C-alpha cells in the first residue's frame, strides 16, 4: 500500500541500509584471509598492567585514547575462540577500517572499556577488523558495520543500547549482572551526580520484597537508563530534591528543564518500563544519527517534527518547551536540523517539500499511518493550535500534491493529488488512469501505449485518459504499490477500479477498454 507507513518503513530501511551498505560492498573484496598471528590475550593483559607507569606527566588526550584502545582486545584468527569461550561476558565490536560509523564508534567503545575497567566489570571488551579476518567475523555472525554483540558464556545477543560511551557502560552493566547502583552516603550521591545526568532514583526501606523484585527486573530489562537505589531518605532527597516524605519512592531525573518526574504507579515491571518510555525523552528531542533508530522505534505517541535552521529553532525553543510540557503525554517533539540532508530530506520528501527553506512542522500518527502538516507559519501559537487539533482529530491528514496543471487540449489529462477527487472520483466519465513514478523504469513503455490508446479512442466523449505521478501525489483512495499501474474507472462505479495488466500490447489494452465500455452499455440497457 502506498501509505505513509510504507514510506516510513522504507525510510527506516534506508537508514539501516546506510549502516549496512558498506558491508555489502565489502563482501566483494573479502577474498583472502591474510590474518597473521598477532598478540594474544596474555600480551594484552600484560599491556594493561603496564598501564602508564612510564608517563609521569598528565597524559594527553591522544595518549588517553590510545591507552583506552589497548584495553580493548583485538580479536584475530588465533585468539577469538579462546576469548569468547574463556570469558563469561564478551562485548564484541565488529568493524571495517574504512567504515565511517565504525570510526565514530571506536573511541566511544574504548572510553566505555576504560570506564568499565575502573568499575571492576568482568566484561571483556573486544573488537574485530572484519575485513582483515572475514572468516572469524562470519563465525561470530558479524554481518554489517559496526556490529555490537554481547557473548554470554559463548552465546551471542544483539546490542540494544545507545551509542555514547555512557550508554555503552550502562547497557553493559545491566546485562552483566550490575543493573543498579546502590548509594549509601551523601558523598557517593555527590560523586554520582557529577557523572550522571539521567537516571532512575528509588528509595526502599529494604532491598527485598515483591516491589523491589519488580524494580530490579525493570532495571535489567531497560536498555539505556541508569537505575539507582538507596534506603536513606536524605540521600534520596539529595538525588531528587522535591521528594515527599515517604519510604517507597521512584522517580526519573533528566538534564533538561523538566528535570524531575515522580512515578505514581504501582511497582510492576511493565508499568515502570512504560513510565520510562513515556518520560525518558527530553521535552524536545534533537534528532541525530546516533539517536535516530531510538526515535524511529518510539512510535507509541504522535510525533511532531520541527524541521528548521538551528537559529530559527532557537527562537522557538522556549515557547515550544511550554507547548511540549502541555502535550507530553500524547506527543513527542523532535527537532531536525534542515541542513542535515540525511535526516531532514527523507521527511521533507514525504511531504513534497524538498526545496523548503523555511521551517516545516509535520506530524505522524504511526497507528493510523497518517501524516499531517502545519500549513500556516510556525509560531508558538500556531504550533499549539496544531497540537491540540491533532489530539482532538480536527487537523486533516496531509496528502502531497503537485500544483494543479493546465490540462487544456491535452489528450491525456495530468491528475494531481488535489484534483484526484474532481477529475477521477467525481467525474461522470469512464477513465483509464496510468499511475507512474519518477524512478520506475518500465513506466515509459506504458506511457507510450497510453499515447497510442488516446489517439485510437480520440473523439469518444465518454472516455478520458489520465495519468498521475504517484511519487509526487497522494490520495487516500489511491492505494497502489506497483508501478506502472493501469486502472479503469467505470463511469457508473468509481469505487472499484478495474486493474489492466500492464504487460499487454496496445491492441490487447484497446480490446479491454472496449470490453469494459460495452459491459457498461449492456448494464445501462438492462436497467432501461
Ligand atoms: C556462565 O557459566 C558459568 C559456569 O558454568 C555459570 O556459573 C554462570 O552462571 C554462567 N553465566 C550466566 C550469565 O549464565
Ligand atoms: C492515531 O491513530 C489511531 C488509529 O487510527 C487513532 O485511534 C488515534 O486516535 C490517532 N491519534 C491521534 C492523536 O490522532
Ligand atoms: C484547444 O482546442 C480548441 C478547440 O478544439 C481550439 O480552438 C484551440 O485553439 C486549442 N488551443 C490550443 C492552445 O491549442
Automatic annotation (TrEMBL):
Keyword Isomerase: yes
Top-level taxon: Eukaryota
Signal peptide region: 1-25
Main localization, broad class: endoplasmic reticulum
InterPro entries: Thioredoxin-like_sf, Thioredoxin_domain
Enzyme Commission code(s) on record: 5.3.4.1
GO BP of this protein: protein folding; response to endoplasmic reticulum stress
Reactions catalysed: Catalyzes the rearrangement of -S-S- bonds in proteins
Keywords: Disulfide bond, Endoplasmic reticulum, Isomerase, Redox-active center, Repeat, Signal
Annotated CDD domains: PDI_a_family (cd02961), PDI_b'_family (cd02982), PDI_b_family (cd02981)
SUPFAM superfamilies: Thioredoxin-like
Segments forming domain Thioredoxin: 15-177, 390-518
Assigned GO CC terms: endoplasmic reticulum lumen
Pfam families (UniProt xref): Thioredoxin, Thioredoxin_6
Compartmental location: Endoplasmic reticulum lumen
One function term, GO molecular function aspect: protein disulfide isomerase activity
Family according to the record: Belongs to the protein disulfide isomerase family.
The name this protein goes by in its record: protein disulfide-isomerase
Organism of provenance: Anisodus acutangulus
